[in-house]
Specification:
The chain is α/β, with parallel strands linked by helices and 264 residues long. The protein has a single domain, classed as Rossmann fold (3-Layer(aba) Sandwich), CATH 3.40.50.150. The chain contains ten helices and seven strands. The protein has a seven-stranded mixed beta sheet with strand order 3-2-1-4-5-7-6, with helices on both faces. Helix 1 packs across helix 7 and helix 2 packs across helix 3. It is globular, with a radius of gyration of 19 Å.
Length: 264
């Protein structure tokens, strides 16, 4: 074992896992998604009207968030995901919950199978960081195409500077481990831990490797280039301590979530 890997293993012993979600059922995970989306929507809600709206939820996962939004009076909500297992489980979860205004489709953001000006609201929660760098511009353009005039495009995601942006905290919970160690080291350490299979087709290692590592500055440039109008933009600090945002330089690394509401 190489020295960086030994150091990573050693340090990892001193940091508790912040949000363990191992060994749970798909239904339990969908219920977690329901709660996560409920928390996220509190930031969007002052700027978004869901009543009688047609909604697109990208990266719907197991359908928990889709169910939450379906209960807020929308006309319809379509959840899309690139993972066929996710779509199957999302269908099952929503049927068992008696949702009658939800639908799901296998699709990527860079080739949306919808007509122009279809949706009143598009929601991406914890999805933007998974869009390949090579297709970010295309994905934003596609979202703009299918969004109605004056519609709302809601985005919430952890920037690469976030303490747990590696998405590895169930295994490697060292703060900012992705900035301290190389990706090669983290992949090697994670692989030796025999990580469990997710509910989808990608492994834990593949989930880490697919992250686009977008910074706050890059995201600002990307939405500027996409010609969206900014309705609301907020950097949420760790533990919601907004005073931390006034600390130069450190505020970048203390931002837990980028929140944006855009308009066409």
């Amino acid at each position: 074992m190489k020295l960086p890997e030994r150091v990573c293993f050693f340090l990892n012993r001193f940091f508790p896992k912040p949000n363990p979600s191992l060994d749970i059922s798909p239904v339990e995970y969908a219920q977690m998604e329901y709660n996560w989306n409920k928390i996220s929507f509190a930031h969007f809600e002052p700027h978004v009207k869901l009543e009688d709206a047609r909604i697109l939820e990208a990266g719907c996962g197991l359908g928990g968030g889709t169910l939450y939004y379906s209960e807020l009076g929308c006309k319809s909500i379509t959840g899309i995901d690139i993972d066929s297992n996710h779509i199957h489980l999302a269908h099952s979860y929503n049927r068992s919950s008696n949702a009658n205004n939800t639908d799901f489709a296998l699709s990527s953001l860079d080739a949306l199978p919808f007509d122009d000006n279809t949706f009143d609201v598009i929601i991406l929660r914890d999805v933007f960081e998974h869009i390949p760098r090579s297709t970010v511009a295309i994905a934003l353009s596609e979202c703009r195409r299918v969004l109605k005039e004056n519609g709302r495009f809601c985005i919430s995601f952890p920037p690469w500077s976030y303490i747990y942006a590696s998405h590895l905290f169930e295994y490697i919970s060292i703060p900012w481990c992705h900035l301290i160690f190389s990706s090669e080291t983290l992949v090697s350490v994670l692989g030796s831990m025999n990580p469990h299979d997710r509910f989808g087709v990608l492994s834990e290692i593949e989930h880490f490797q697919e992250l686009n590592r977008v910074s706050i500055k890059e995201f600002k440039n990307q939405i500027h280039d996409s010609q969206f109008k900014v309705v609301y933009f907020h950097l949420r600090m760790i533990m919601n301590q907004n005073l931390l945002s006034y600390i130069p330089f450190l505020n970048t690394y203390l931002t837990s979530r980028v929140i944006a509401v855009l308009s066409k």
